[in-house]
Amino acid sequence: MERKRSLSPAPILLLALFLILSCRLAAVQAFATADGNEVCVVKISGMVTEGTTLEVVEGIREAELKGYEAVLVEINTPGGLVDATLKVTEAILNAQVPVITYVAPSGAIAASAGTFILLSGSVAAMSPGTTVGAAMPVAMTFEGVEAADEKTVKFFAGHVESIARSRGRNETQARLFVTENAVLGEDEALRNGVIDLIAKDERELLDKIDGWEVETAAGTTTLSTKNATLIFRKRGAKAWLLQVLSDPLVAFILFLVGIYGLAFGFMTPGYGAEVVGAICLVLALYGMGMFDVNVFAAILIVVAVILFVAEALTPTFGVLTAGGIICLILGALFLPSEPFLIKAPSWLTEFKYTVIAVAVASAAFFVFALGAVLKARRRKVAVGVEELIGSVTKAETDINEDGGFVKVRGELWKARSKKGSIRKGERVKIVDREGLTVIVERSEAAEEGQK
Question: Rounded to two decimals, what is the model's pTM?
């Protein structure tokens, strides 16, 4: 009998090794053959979070490794988190390659955190119809949005002034962005020395700055950007995940869902809610680790959930529910303890209304949905023969104290008469059971006994 040949693993291993070496060689060649006349484009859109930081840092690192001519950071943001903003400006100021900051496209804004980022570039530019400013740090309160305390405002005013000074820009105007919430269009920004030029698109921008001498952390360099190739970086999965998780609104909702899942899972095991809750809680804690969190606010959120659960278990006509809603709203509003560098009131107003909606929905869920589930679980379980007690049917055979049979719901059951003999075909009522034998009596007798 001919033995079946098995494929030797050696060729497979050699092929895998060849592919790995080929990929490594291609990567080395990519780094070695970069001619320098390429510009890496990083886009900042939406709220500035840790995801934004990762995108900018990785874009600058890629440009440094591959020998790109510059990094072009396109800005269109209402602002964002303080820590993330400071990390972005730090990365730009310490870059070994020129970083061009550019408010684009037409109609875009570089508000609050975006102002800090724009001023930190080796070259700062704006496209027509764009604005910059409104960089006063703000804080959330129960009444609404208000300016941060005087000490915080002074700190950020001095910091943005320092950034402008390091890039040779108008320090006074930079300070006014923070202290007076000043806002400038592209023409005013150019006249006031906030930006270096106005360009309608990336190509015009790169052509205009070709030959400029700019300062980087590595020293003075001359830009060669005319006809440069634009390399647009796609947002990676990690950056996208950080962008989502470090949003305070998303972190709050995940935190709440996590606690709900654990509570629901412990009270009604078997549905997998505790697994979902644990995952959401871990993601929430990871996200909240990217901005300063008020511990007292987190405790208020936990207390709110406890009050909702207590209401579902022991109804108090809404007293605990009202307390839970108040605790949940206060906890959510005060959860981010750091000030925001964000244009008010758009994002913050949306945050507040979302929190209120989530609080009301949470109360409704616990009071009605979870309450109904718990009541259903407390009901006496009726299965098997117990479920048949009280049913009326007919005798399939003669039934006496020694036995017989009845048919209930299409099934034959062994039966015994409680008193006297019952003939086949007579109507009987199941009144009790003994093991798997049902005890029956004539239905007429049962009715007389009830009278």
Answer: 0.66
